[in-house]
Every structure is written in C-alpha cells, then in structure tokens.
Amino acid sequence: MYLKICLMNSRFLRACALLAALSFATAAASATDFVVIANPGANLTGLSREQVADLFLGKSASLPGLCCPVLIDQPESSPLREAFYNGVAGKSAAQAKSSWAKMYFTGKGIPPKEGKGNDEIRAMVAANRNMLGYIDRSAADSSVRIVFGEK
Amino acid sequence: MLHHLKHPLLATLLALTFSGAQAFDFNGSGFLTLAAGKMIRGETRDAFFVSDYGQGAIYDRGHGWSFGPDSKLGLQGVAVFDHDWSMTGQIVARGADNGQVDLEWLYASYRASENITLQAGRKRLPLFYYSESQDVGLTLPWLRLPPAAYGWDVVNFNGASVLWRTPLGKWNSAAEVFYGAETRRGNPYLDIYNGRGADWDEKWNNIRGLSWTVSRDWLELRVSYVASGLKYWNPRDVAATFSKTRQSVLSLAAAIDLDHWLIRAEVSKIDRPGFAEHDRAALLGAGYRLGKWLPMITFARFHGRYLDGTPNERFDNLSLSLRYDLTPSSALKLQFDSFKDRSDVGITCYQDPVTCLSGSQRYGDSRLLGVSYDLVF
Question: Which spans in chain B are helix H?
C-alpha cells in the first residue's frame, strides 16, 4: 500500500523510499538469514548451494568425506524452513515435502528429521558427527561449523 | 483382509519384522486422500469414468457425489535394524475396494554401499513415472493420475531389486533393475472389461525390468522397460478361458520444474503380441505455480489397437486442475475432467455383465468434477 502512496504523492517520496528500504532489509534479515551447520568433527568444509539443495531434496545421499548424512529440518511452521528451501533450491517447503513423500513412501529415501527449532537443531548437530541442519545465523555458535552461508 | 500374506515369502518377511522387537527403531507414518467426485455429464445412462484401472475405481451416472473411487488411507511402518538394514510395510485401505486393506509394500532393504541398495519382498511395479507413488495424493499435482497413461492391470510384484544411485558429472542418476512375479485373483481391472463380478485371475510371471532416472536442477528424465509373461483365466472354467502371451512395457517421461512453470510429459508403448495388442499412451501437462497455488492443464490419450479384429479402445482426457498447498504436508485440489471416448462399440461390458459375451458398449463421453484433501503424516 505504501508504494502506491509513494507513486501518487511525490512529497513523500524520500520518506517512502526509506521506509521501503527498511522494510525490505528487515524482511531479509528475519526471514532468510540461515546458515547450514555441521559437526566440527565431521570432515566437511564449505558446501556449494547445489550440494546443499541436492541433499535436502534427496537427489544425493552423500558428500565427499561424509557418507549418508542425517538431515535436520526446521519445524513446518517455521518461516526459516520456507526461506531455506527457497534460498538453496528455489522451491517451496511444500514442494520439498512432496518430493520427499514420493521417495519415502516408495522406499527411495529417508526424509530429514524434524527439529523443534534453532537451539535443538544446533544441539543435535553438535552431538552427532553425521548430522547436518540449518538454523538462523544468529543462533550459530562455536559448537557447530558453518558449512554454507558463511559471510 | 491382507490376503496377500498367504504368500510364504511375505509371511516370512513379516515374521522377521516383528521378531526381536527390542532390537530396532520403529517409525510409523502414513497418507490420506479424502476425495469426492461426481459425473456431471454422461453421454448415455450407462456411461462410466474409470479413475483408477488398477483398483477398478469407477464413477458413473447412477450415483451423485461418490467418496469411494479416489479416497484412500495408507499406513507405513519402517523398522530400522541397524545403519544398513531396514524392513518396510505399507497397507492401503481404499474406498474403491469398500475399505478392504491391501498390502502394497513389504520389503527388506539393505544398503550394500554408499550408492547401492538391495530390496526384496513386495513392492509397487515401477511401470511409469508416478506408478510407485500413485496412492500418495500429496505427491501428485493432480487429484488423480491421468487414467489414460496409468491404467494398467497389475501394479505390484513380489521379487527383488537393486538400486544404484550415483552422480554422473553434473547430473544425478538412479538406476534400478528388478525381477519378480505377481498373481492377482479376482482382478478388479478385468471386471471393467469382462463385467462387474467377473472375477478373472491374472498372472505376470518372469517380470524383469529396468528403470533409469537422471536429474539436474529443474529437469528430470526417466526411461523404463518391463517385460514379462502374462496369463489370464476365469477360475470357474480355466480350460475354456486360459490364455497367455508375453508383453513389454516401455515408458519415457520428462518432468520440468522451473520457478513457476511445471511440465509433465510421458509416452508409453505396451505390446502383447500373442493377443495382437499394441497400445500407446501419452500425457502432457503444464502448470504455473503462483505461491501456494498450482493451476494446471493436462491432456492424456490412450489408444489400444488390436490387429485381429478385436474392438479398438481409444480415448482422450482433458483435465483442468487446481492445487492449493495448505501446509507443506497437506493440500486441497479441485479438478474438472472432460473424457472423450473414441472407442469401437464392444470394448467393455462393465455395466452389462449378464448379457455380455464379447463386449457390448463403449465407456461413453463424460465430464467429471472432483475435490480432494491430501495429507501425509
């Protein structure tokens, strides 16, 4: 709505532009700023976006140096889950779930486990060498290693 | 109920599953489709629309809204014994079958290496792109699979398979070979042609097949080839009704998933030389994803051609469907189908089993409206 007002009324242009920029930046920071984390003991460093997407969409089941990682998803209600699948694979969380259901009910793969949120997923990954998850950037600490999304 | 369990191999596998109950992790899950459909127009009083050939699921004009043909509930249990061994069972109760429970999957799985998985037991037969996940509505863009391309008489087999998954350059490859057999007693598919309650039996023996899928980013391509022996008989008079031949089923499929566009294309070729039968089927669907909405238009065609004078079976189906993702695990769908029957008279005696000798009618043109709720849990 404010964009419409901005277009219609040039007097508010500067304020509107600022407002638009601010709201854009806030949305980006709160909804899309995730990092993929691994156990520091795992033999993994940086992963490419394609590697992360292939793993979390079930197209590949292993990584160089880590056979058969166990993947951890955010809860279905979490906006981070939507942002993650959008960000790494250009897919919605519903599309990802749909393709996992196809694999799971036909014996082709085991979908990611579901964690309760950032703290639990970080703790699970910190305690298991073969687990991979994604959490809000602000929730990452030294108990885990960031393997995708590091600035 | 669970009549397939009489098979000794399956009984053994089931016994294995439930022995040593302390020694494994067990995960239960399932899927549900609640669907209602109504034939809103039929060419004749007897016109009928087959929504799932393999299960004999049918809409006709005699009923208003039907919940039976497309509704189903599936339950799956996976017992993981250790990192590499697991046992999976899946049962499905269908409205099309008056709620009878069928065992669709029961197999042991062994991960022999990082890339190779061996499975043995009862599985879905991977004839076409969506064959194996046919019952799981959430995995489909449509309310149901296009019957023209997925209408086949045997959908499971007992046997073994080897799956080999590997990267191929920038592509991901999954190749599966399988071998087995399947006997269907009172096959509901054969009731469609031989008449309600005809209860013919059918066996596919020496089933051997290969399916290969490669995918990269937005593109997935699949080819499969299945060959087997085929036998039909009516158990009330085996000597007079027994017939057999060999058959082959070839399928080529492409699935494209761009940011907004979704394309599904599949062609198949089925040959049963001993019956002079040469069938062709095709589907082409295009959808445009808008957030949680997926409107889609799909055209499908079947042509069953006989070289011995048997009436030919030909039909086209145009579907307009709309899917809405309620949550990642659930969806609502609305679908309109327009079915054009171009068959010769005499392909089916489903509605007229008593007087039918060699087939007496066509399906008849029809239009169908359906709504569904799909869930996985």
Answer: 8-18, 147-150, 188-194, 238-241
Domain ranges of chain B: 106-376
Nearest to B57 by CA among B120, B118, B102, B89: B102
Q: Give CATH for domain B106-376.
A: 2.40.160.10
Nearest to B329 among A60, A62, A97 (CB): A97
User: What is this model's ipTM?
Assistant: 0.89
> B82 in contact with A at a CB cutoff of 8 Å?
no
Tokens of B231: 């036998």
Residue type, A70: V
pLDDT along chain B (377 residues), means of 10: 45 52 79 97 93 94 90 96 91 89 95 93 97 96 96 95 93 96 95 89 98 94 98 94 96 96 98 96 98 97 95 97 97 98 92 76 95 98
pTM of this structure: 0.87
β-strands A70-73, A113-114 pairing? parallel
Contacting residues of B for A95, CB less than 8 Å apart: 257
Single-letter amino acid code for the residue at B341: D
Find all residues with CB under 8 Å of A99, minimum gap 6, and list them. A57, A58, B139
Question: What does the block give as tokens for A115?
Answer: 């964690």
B22 — phi, psi (to 5°)?
A: -80, -20
